[in-house]
Structure formats: C-alpha cells, structure tokens
C-alpha cells in the first residue's frame, strides 16, 4: 500500500522523497513557462519561424534584443527540449521544430498555447497585492492585471471562436434557427476582445449584435478587430455592465462566453439579461468544463482552472464587493443555482463537445 501511494505524489500520503521530486519538477515547469513568456513577448519564437535557423547574435540583431540574454535563452530552450541546436556549426545555430512552432506562434491553430504564460505573468506582477487580498479580502481587478491577462484570454480563445463556434451552433437546430432569422438582435455579454461576437456576426449575416463589457481597453480592442473583420456596421461594442442589458434589447438570443464566473454579482447580471430577452429566447453560457463536484485529487483541467482561479479570476471578482466570489472552478450546480435565483425556467447542457476546455449551457425563460 505504501508503495502504491508513493507513486502518486499528488496525494497527501506521498513520501517526503516523492513530494520533493514532484516539487522540483514543478519548479522546472515554472522556469520553462517563464522562458516561454520571454520568447513570446520578445518575438524570439516568431523570428525563428520567419527566418529559419539562427545564431544567438543573429536572433538578437533581428529582434533588437541583447545578444548575451538571447544566447542564454536559446541554450535553455534546447536544454528543455523546446528548440533544436546544430552544434556542428560555428557558432551554433538554433531552430524551432514545426510542431513547437505551431503551438507557440500559429494563432489560428486549435493547438495554439503560446499566450498561456501571459496569464501567470499578469498575476506575478501583482503578487504583493494578491498577498494582501488573501490576508484581508478584496482582490485585483481585470483592469489592473492589464494587457497580459486580457490578451492571453483573447488569443487562446480566438482560434476556437474562428474555427469551431459556427459549426457548433449550427448543430443545435432550435438555436441555429433563431439566430438565422432575418433581423435577429443578439447580445454578447463580457465579450473581451470581441472575437466571439465577430465569429457570430460572420456566421449569421442577417443579424445585428451588441457587445457589453466593463473593461474599456477590451472595448477598444474589440472595435479595432470588428473594423478589420469588416463587420462594424452590424456589431456595436459598448462599455457597459451586463446588468444594463435591458437598455439595449430586446434580444432574440444572448451569449456569455467564459465571463460569468468572473462577475462579482452574476445573479443580477443573469436577471437583467433574462429581462432583455424576447419571448422564447434563451441565454447561452460558455464556461469551463470542470468536474461536477470537488473530490480531492483532480484531473489536469480542474488543476489548471484552480490555478487561474487563485491567481486571476477569484481576485478579479472579489475586487468589486459585494461579490459572489465564484471562481474559475464553476461547477454546473453553481450555475443552476444562479439561474434559478435569476428567474430562469431551466438550464440544459447543449450537445457541443470537444470545444477546448468549455461546456455550453442554455438558460431558458
């Protein structure tokens, strides 16, 4: 029995040696994640994709960065097995393998994760404030977390919205029919960078859309994206809280993509959206597909969501009291309770599967 427990260092009964090994591995993963952040933000990965194998001096020259730091980073990337090195060349040259390049630089790929370290970088910058919040309450807002957090979420979700949202919704017959009606008016609550709204606008060209978000920087970013996508005539992005939805309705459908768990007062927002819906319309909530209940040791999805919750989403929600303090581990039972409290008739899980880390719910009136 002891040997069986020791082989699972994520369990409370692990031996000191096993847990020490696990923690050392976590430190290695942290260093790797931080190094990926550097390669992403300094443009080193993208430069290697565009230019092919490079020496450290050439990489520094192309990216206008420091050559000594570039060499140390390149060697570390090879030590971790991310990049390849040709040691027969003098000086050595470094290259990025195609699979690694896709994950770290191809923002249209469903495998793209290059922006992922930005979320943790955003919270690391505010660890003193987070420590104070953990001691005394309060939090750190999405606005304070800044561009790293904002762009991370937007960039990671965009390929899924661009490539999979339209087919996913087309597979839900009653919803697709409502969205396809000529003149349909649709809300996107908490739209972030606007990629969800733009994907909806492309899928349903006879509809008009209103996006509501409290973060002014996100609104500006979304408006720029809508102009680039040439959908600005049918899409409006406004700085507004979700509880202002009824002022911009009525809506034939509404969406809330990966935002409800961040809201300090989600029931109030849900109730306002319900009041803004036309008869028979529904609200579609996309949120994390975490397990149904807490069971102690969890799968990797729950683990990463607890990480996001502790460092980003829960502090964001608690920065605006009074707060429901939902957190990223947003279980179905919690959403169903919020929906009941907001006056919805029911909550159903839609038959949309294999959509990144997410589950789709329909809140009916």
Automatic annotation (TrEMBL):
CDD domains, A to Z: AdoMet_MTases
Domain Methyltransferase residue range list: 182-294
A Pfam entry, by short name: Methyltransf_31
Domain S-adenosylmethionine-dependent methyltransferase Rv2258c-like winged HTH as annotated: residue spans: 33-105
BP terms from Gene Ontology: methylation
Lineage, uppermost ranks: Bacteria, Bacillati, Actinomycetota, Actinomycetes, Mycobacteriales
Signal peptide residue numbers: none
UniProt entry keywords in alphabetical sequence: Methyltransferase, Transferase
GO molecular function, one term: methyltransferase activity
Keyword Transferase attached: yes
Name used for this protein in its record: SAM-dependent methyltransferase
Origin: domain of life: Bacteria
């Amino acid at each position: 029995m002891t040997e069986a427990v020791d082989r699972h260092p994520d369990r409370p009964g692990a031996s000191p040696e096993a847990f020490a090994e696990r923690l050392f591995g976590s430190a290695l993963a942290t260093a790797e994640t931080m190094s990926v952040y550097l390669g992403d933000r300094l443009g080193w990965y993208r430069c290697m994709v565009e230019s092919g194998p490079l020496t450290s001096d050439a990489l520094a020259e192309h990216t206008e960065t420091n050559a000594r730091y570039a060499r140390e980073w390149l060697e570390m990337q090879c030590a971790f097995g991310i990049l390849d090195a040709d040691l027969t060349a003098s000086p050595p040259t470094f290259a990025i393998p195609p699979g690694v390049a896709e994950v770290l630089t191809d923002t249209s790929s469903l495998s793209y994760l290059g922006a992922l370290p930005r979320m943790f970088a955003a919270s690391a910058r505010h660890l003193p404030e987070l420590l104070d919040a953990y001691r005394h309450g309060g939090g750190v807002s999405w606005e304070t977390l800044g561009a790293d957090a904002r762009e991370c979420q937007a960039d990671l979700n965009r390929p899924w919205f661009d490539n999979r949202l339209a087919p996913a919704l087309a597979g839900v017959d009653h919803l697709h029919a409502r969205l396809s009606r000529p003149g349909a008016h649709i809300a996107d609550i908490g739209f972030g960078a606007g990629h969800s709204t733009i994907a909806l606008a492309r899928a349903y060209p006879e509809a008009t859309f209103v996006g509501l978000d409290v973060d002014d920087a996100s609104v500006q970013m979304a408006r720029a994206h809508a102009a680039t996508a040439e959908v600005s005539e049918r899409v409006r992005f406004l700085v507004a809280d979700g509880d202002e939805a009824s002022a911009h309705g009525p809506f034939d459908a509404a969406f809330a993509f990966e935002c409800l768990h961040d809201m300090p007062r989600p029931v109030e927002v849900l109730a306002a959206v319900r009041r803004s819906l036309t008869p028979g319309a529904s609200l579609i909530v996309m949120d994390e597909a975490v397990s149904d209940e807490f069971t102690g040791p969890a799968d990797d999805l729950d683990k990463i969501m607890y990480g996001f919750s502790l460092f980003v989403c829960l502090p964001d929600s608690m920065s605006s009291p009074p707060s429901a303090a939902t957190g990223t581990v947003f279980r179905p039972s919690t959403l169903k309770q919020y929906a009941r409290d907001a006056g919805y008739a029911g909550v159903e899980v839609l038959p949309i599967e294999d959509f990144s880390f997410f589950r789709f719910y329909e809140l009916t009136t």
